[in-house]
Design goal:
This protein is mainly β and 319 residues long. It has one helix and 24 strands. It has a domain of 223 residues: TolB, C-terminal domain (Neuraminidase). The strands form six sheets. It has a four-stranded antiparallel beta sheet, with no helix packed on it. A four-stranded antiparallel beta sheet has the order 2-3-4-5, with no helix packed on it.
Length: 319
């Protein structure tokens, strides 16, 4: 999630946009190694609130996404068809910090198909982590502070925990799936906002929690100690102004990061300078999140500023 004031008037924003057709985009013209074959799988409807904020993948290659302002969880198939799985209940009076509207943000998936999402409303009764079982209805399983903004989300299925990045409170919460209790697992200046949005995207990778900080343009690594506590926060990448979420490529700690306002996906390697691999010319429209399955890369674009063509784009890792 990035610069959420863009949705302070979601209805007006949607009305300013045209419904878009579900046809493939023109071939990419600027995709760069290690990516190739970039194309838009699904053009979404901004007027209907289809601004995808976060993504997790199904075993069949379909993508589960959150539509941030519509309060929806949806599935986009490999045929480009979009199916709304659930709509979270609206607060009586939304008061979400920074944005003012109810926002569905991070999403994670368990092996049995259960989906978990973060929901920020600014109200005590709804803000927290919600669960959607296959064929079920959404239910809140853990409360989070109403004065925060839960954003990135990752599941540690082995230990029965969820990790949540709070963009306002500069905290990584650990939430128990067993009883819904929350713990401030990691805090520190590195996670704090520097004017607006702090901790944002979040991934569990190789025994650590990795977090992006939008205001500081950084990617952080927080080791998970043997006793489950957080180790020292390490800064692993800098200079990523406007970073939203990110995903690992499957090759060590190499990752792809979404730079929302720059309309770029950058490739980040340990110790190396970020390189631009996808741009607006390839179909990006304010990218928000990245997921990788094998050699296929999925990128969601929410059109927060372009106000045109929110979409799901696919590319291939070739190196």
């Amino acid at each position: 999630m990035l610069r959420l004031t863009r949705f302070a008037r979601p209805a007006g924003l949607a009305a300013a946009s045209l419904a878009l057709t579900l046809f493939s985009a023109a071939p990419a013209v600027s995709v760069a190694p290690p990516l190739s074959d970039a194309h838009v799988l699904a053009h979404l409807d901004l007027a209907a609130g289809q601004a995808p904020e976060n993504i997790v993948l199904e075993p069949d290659g379909s993508a589960d996404v959150t539509f941030i302002g519509a309060r929806q969880i949806a599935r986009i198939g490999l045929d480009g068809h979009t199916q709304v799985l659930a709509t979270l209940p609206a607060p009586a009076v939304p008061a979400t910090p920074l944005v003012g509207f109810a926002a569905v943000t991070g999403i994670a998936r368990a092996d049995d198909g259960t989906l978990y999402v973060n929901y920020a409303t600014g109200t005590e009764d709804l803000t927290g982590v919600w669960r959607l079982s296959p064929g079920g209805v959404p239910e809140r399983i853990a409360a989070l502070p109403a004065n925060g903004l839960p954003n990135g989300l990752a599941l540690d299925q082995q230990h029965g925990d969820l990790y949540v990045a709070d963009s306002v409170l500069g905290t990584v919460w650990r939430v128990s799936l067993q009883d819904g209790t929350r713990t401030a697992w990691a805090t520190g200046t590195e996670l704090q906002p520097a004017g607006f949005i702090g901790a944002n995207g979040l991934r569990k990778h190789h025994g650590a929690i990795w977090v992006s900080n939008t205001d500081r343009g950084t990617i952080l690594r927080i080791p998970i100690c043997p006793d489950g506590s957080a180790g020292p926060i390490e800064t692993r990448a800098t200079g990523l102004d406007g970073i939203d979420d990110f995903g690992f490529t499957g090759q060590g700690d190499n990752l792809l990061a979404a730079r929302n306002t720059a309309n770029e996906i950058v490739y980040v390697t340990p110790g190396g300078a970020p390189t631009v691999v996808l741009t607006q010319q390839d179909g990006l429209s304010n990218p928000t999140s990245v997921a990788v399955c094998g050699d296929t890369v999925y990128v969601t674009s929410a059109a927060f500023f372009t106000l045109q063509d929110p979409n799901l784009l696919l590319a291939r890792i070739t190196a």
